Amino acid sequence: MTRTSLACLALLCILPSALLCILPSRLSAQAAPHELPEWRRHGVCYEVFVRSFQDSDGDGVGDLRGLIGKLDYINDGDPATTTDLGATCIWLMPIAQSPSYHGYDVTNYYEVNRDYGTNEDFKLLIAEAERRGIHVIVDLVLNHMSSEHPIFRSALLDPASPWRDWFLWSPAPRPAPGWEAPVWHRAGSRDEYYYGLFWGGMPDYNLANAAATAKLRDVARFWLEVMGAAGFRIDAVGHFFEGPAGEWKHDARAHPWLRDYAAYVRSVAPAAFTIGEVWDGIDAIRPYYPDQLDSYFMFEVADGLVNAVRSGSAAQLVAAVTKAQRELPRGRWSPFLRNHDQTRTMTEFGGHVPRARLAATLLLTLPGFPFLYYGEELGMTGDKPDPRLRTPMHWTLDRTAGFTHAALPWEPLQPDSFTANVAVQHSDPESLLNHHRRLIRLRAATPALGATGDFIPLDTGSDGVVAYLRRDGGQTVLVIANLGEQRVAGQTLASTDAVLPAGRYTTRPLLGRAAPVALHVGDDGSIQGWVPVPTLEPFEAYVLELAR
Ligand code: CA
After folding, report:
1. Distance 396 CA to ligand 1 centre (A)
2. Which end of the chain is flanked by fewer CB atoms within 10 Å, N or C?
3. Separation of 59 CA from ligand 1 center, angstroms?
4. Ligand 1: distance of its center to the CA of 148 in Å?
5. What is the pLDDT of residues 416-456, one digit of tens each?
6. Catalytic center residues
7. What is the 3-state secondary structure (H, E, C) of 78-124?
């Protein structure tokens, strides 16, 4: 089969035929799945808040040397061991100089936050990560800087400052329809206001200013060329330009700006990876493809996934993934459960471990390049305010959970530090941690589960059971899961379209203990009345390979 006919087969499975004449051309124009490197095609990215991961020098604050000491937990570089997570990537939340604990207001883009160490420590991290096959991407804040940055101080204090046009000024505050907080902030004692969407401490750049843009390009060059980062997670991409009537998201000027910026990044480091935060649905994110950043976080899939597992209804998850697969370039979007801005998954599930296990199984068998927020693999809890979403990691059973030698960590631990704990879960084969380790390893070893493979939902006749085929590289696997609290017996699966070549298949369990079951695919290529497993316990999931 040609690639086009394969693509048509994939589309036949998931689309009303009326759309078929439109979509294949779009798909072929955007498809470049074979260019995705292995670390993104079959790997997983682990989001780390350095302040909360591991403190090496006893000041109660996590640091880069602490993270280096824990790299073997993330990936020890030896494919034969099963005692590491096996992540191929780390996203570091901001590590540049900043007066805040979170770091999203930068005062010096060229220097590692002194709380976290030095630029040399970062270079050592890169060397140690590379040895283990871990690619380190850093958070890049291009929407705004800190109000304490010398450039903004100059612009604020001196109307003749050469940096004045790097920011947005107004003689009076103006409304930003639909945004709750004030966005215009008084400029000292002057009768003048500057624009800072998130907070007065974060004045937005005027990205129409060529000098500001050149400066931000140079920041990317520095982290790629001098520091050795593998790429960037780019913050607040949906808010780069403000519209004439105070619109605060998706101004069209962002697209040429991002196109140029991404081209510059590639000119410095052709293999660099860029992933943007556009906190919105798939329709809103589509215009940020195909020629801007490499990838974007898929919030619609994340919400669909968490809601499906919480509510026991698969519809929202299947719809979101199907839409992402249909409308976005293959492999160039990222599913996740939760990030540092959101209530942690286990808290969403009210401490219900089987739901957390199921959510992990679904996340790590979806297409796209999945991201995992630190501590989620343990089921750490956490709810707003923000610092409580970003609390210290629980390593051991000592007083500070092995995070620090100081009397107190920078932020108090969560009350679940004795159970959502690496030492405890490491030695329990059935723990959530070991479940994550198995799934990440399975994803790496199973071509069909890769980022660019097909996602073909099957008809279960019940919203409480989700089933989908993943298909790539000549391999097909079935994922089937019971989202509900009741045992399900004799669940049948069907497809409305041709999904497999005709013939007899048998199953082989890759996850879950199940006896092999035969599947007969008829001449029309469809699946009808197939019972792949006799029963599904509440929140139970299977991953089965199909072989002819
Ligand atoms: Ca420290």
Report:
1. 18
2. N
3. 5
4. 23
5. 999 999 999 999 999 999 999 999 999 999 999 999 999 99
6. 235, 277
7. CCCCCCCCCCCEEEECCCEECCCCCCCCCCEEEEECCCCCCHHHHHH
